[in-house]
Design goal:
The complex is a heterodimer of chains A (143) and B (451). Chain A has 143 residues and is α/β, with parallel strands linked by helices. Helix content of chain A is 42%, strand content 25%. The longest helix of chain A has 30 residues. Classes of the chains: A alpha/beta (143), B mainly alpha (451). Chains A and B meet through strand 1, strand 2, helix 1 and helix 4 of A and helix 5, helix 6, helix 9, helix 18 and strand 1 of B.
């Protein structure tokens, strides 16, 4: 960073102080480190290229259920897995119906990992299977 | 609509030249963000009072048009009239501008990779913001409050509605739900922060300082990934930065209109996240301590309409929150007296500050080095804004610390999932303050005899 302009017998030299050079160097270093991080992020994304977002993956499972649920109201929720994400996603897909995390409602949604669990959960909570969508999702009704 | 409302509002309050000038870039970024916030507030008020949010937006647009038109005849751009000392040697500026452009391009690529991986956003996006947007969009006008019930406390129904209401309103306009809306918001607020930083510091301290600050912010990849994850922390960070930028422009050029915009931006941070109310109070307290009499009423006037909307939401719609609800108050004294919590919080914050970025070296260390290298040389007329900004950030940091101390949820989990995001919320504002305080990079002329 040094420019020279000849002015007749004298030369105007434009210099940056060491402090200015250090300041620019530090911000340049930060930019280079960021490029390194972004390159690392790119490889991580490529490594996980086959992974599909859970929100995308699960969406079609709820299409059938959504079409038979009332437009509004509160339904219960049962599962054979203690996974918060499963419950949160169920609510995300079924909004504006409110999904309460209990089996006290007249209608209860079952979201299970093992298909055999639907009948067991229904029996344990005195519920009848209204419809089993054969994809781990079922609608149950209080007897 | 949001862009027009905001841009005209900023043109009315922070007058520009009769035609367009280069500073309209700053007005456009600031205006779009404020426009998004105001449209979101109109949408919420429309739902609350059973009128069309679009009618309210139309009225607001007419008011902004009228105000901008009334100012137009007598207006001139104060930024053009009072530029910072010119940089005579532009080669370095060109190098910095090209570097900033390249880095932002790579950030944009990373944003694209992340949105392709998580088109619906990450956990908080679909469990909170987009879920609330779905409740607002999919419900009838009478039943939109169904989603704001204590049955769904895990989805934080007490969180304010800037993002959900704006997303739902835009879906209604488009006639369909699409991920493009939250993605576009994330993109605008992520890259808008770098734009606002560069444009504002260019006006205040010269193009070179603006470009260096923009480069420092662009060199924080985490911020752009967070934006692509559709988290509200990035819009919140934008409004925190906008508060400081507007107040500094107000003090620097003695433009009361920018104090109104600063107040609006601070209040809109409270309409984005609950932490925004902490930021608003911290900023107000800092201003009262540093210079209570200067532009204080315009500041409050700008905040008042948005604060009224937040008040209506909190009183009429939102259930009690985690911390100050009945569950949160239980055991609060015990948590406050527990020394172990203080040690754990301090250690976690220091660890996250070190790994923030994420870069190999903490950006906090790099910025401290930059400040050491250039020295603290703020302009005299920026002193009040600088002290206000630093104090407001300090107050906010302390408030966040005590929220951790008092919070009823599992502390280790809370720290692991939130500290880096809270740092990200304040990071653009920290960069702004550092570059406002730092000396500018100027060459030293030497006349040497020619051989």
């Amino acid at each position: 960073m040094q420019y020279c302009i000849s002015v007749r017998s004298a030369k105007l030299t434009i210099m940056y102080s060491w402090r200015a050079k250090l300041g620019i160097a530090l911000i340049s270093l930060m930019a280079l480190l960021a490029l390194g991080t972004l390159a690392g992020y790119r490889s991580a994304v490529q490594r996980n290229g086959g992974q599909v977002d859970v929100a995308i993956l699960n969406a079609p499972r709820f299409d059938g259920l959504r079409s038979i649920l009332p437009h509004r109201g509160t339904v219960g929720y049962l599962s054979d897995a203690d996974e918060k994400a499963d419950y949160f996603l169920t609510q995300y897909f079924l909004a504006p119906v409110v999904v309460a995390h209990d089996a006290q409602q007249d209608l209860v949604v079952a979201n299970v990992r093992s298909p055999a669990a639907i009948a067991k959960l229904a029996a344990a909570h005195n519920l009848t299977v209204v419809r089993n969508f054969q994809n781990g999702i079922a609608l149950l009704r209080r007897n | 609509m949001a862009l027009l409302i905001g841009f005209l509002l900023v043109r009315a309050l922070g007058p520009g030249s009769r035609g367009l000038c280069r500073h309209d870039f700053l007005r456009l970024i600031l205006g779009t963000a404020i426009g998004v916030g105001l449209c979101s507030a109109c949408s919420f008020l429309g739902l609350l009072f059973g009128v069309s949010g679009l009618v309210l937006e139309g009225l607001l647009l007419m008011a902004c048009c009228t105000a901008a038109a009334l100012r137009w005849k007598y207006t001139k751009c104060r930024f053009c009239a009072d530029p910072p000392a010119a940089n005579r040697y532009r080669v370095l500026n060109i190098v910095l501008a090209v570097s900033l452009g390249l880095l932002l391009t790579v950030d944009a690529l990373a944003f694209r990779w992340a949105t392709r991986q998580w088109p619906q956003g990450q956990w908080d996006a679909w469990a909170i913001w987009n879920l609330h947007a779905r409740f607002l969009y999919r419900s009838d006008a009478l039943f939109w409050r169904d989603g704001f019930t204590q049955l769904l406390n895990w989805s934080h129904p007490d969180y304010p509605l800037l993002l959900p209401a704006f997303i739902a309103r835009t879906w209604k306009l488009l006639g369909r739900e699409t991920n493009s809306v939250p993605m576009a918001l994330g993109f605008f607020f992520s890259f808008g922060s770098a734009g606002l930083m560069t444009a504002c510091l260019s006006v205040l301290r010269g193009t070179r300082q603006g470009l260096l600050a923009g480069l420092a912010l662009a060199a924080t990849p985490g911020l752009y990934i967070l934006g692509a994850s559709q988290y509200a922390d990035v819009p919140f960070a934008f409004f925190v930065l906008a508060t400081l930028a507007c107040m500094t422009l107000c003090d620097h050029f003695d433009l009361a209109g920018f104090a109104v915009l600063a107040g609006a931006a601070a209040a809109l941070s409270g309409w984005t996240k609950n932490e925004g109310l902490v930021w608003f109070c911290a900023f107000l307290a800092a201003r009262v301590i540093v210079r209570p009499t200067r532009h204080f009423l315009p500041l409050l006037a700008g905040a008042a309409p948005v604060l009224a909307v937040i008040f209506l939401f909190k009183v009429i719609v939102a259930p009690p929150g985690d911390i100050f609800g009945a569950g949160g108050r239980a055991g609060m004294i015990g948590r406050f007296m527990d020394a172990g919590r203080y040690a754990l919080i301090s250690r976690s914050i220091l660890e996250q500050i070190w790994s923030f970025g994420p870069l190999l070296i903490s950006p906090f260390v790099i910025l401290a080095g930059f400040l050491f290298a250039t020295g603290m040389q703020p302009e005299e007329r920026d002193q009040i804004a600088l002290r206000t900004s630093a104090l407001a950030l300090l107050f906010t940091g302390v408030a966040y610390y005590f929220v951790y101390v008092l919070h009823p949820l599992d502390l280790r989990w809370l720290l692991a999932t939130t500290v880096n995001r809270l740092i990200a919320q304040l990071w653009p504002a920290i960069v702004f303050v550092v570059f406002l305080a730092a000396g500018t990079i100027k060459p030293v002329d030497r006349l040497t005899p020619s051989p």
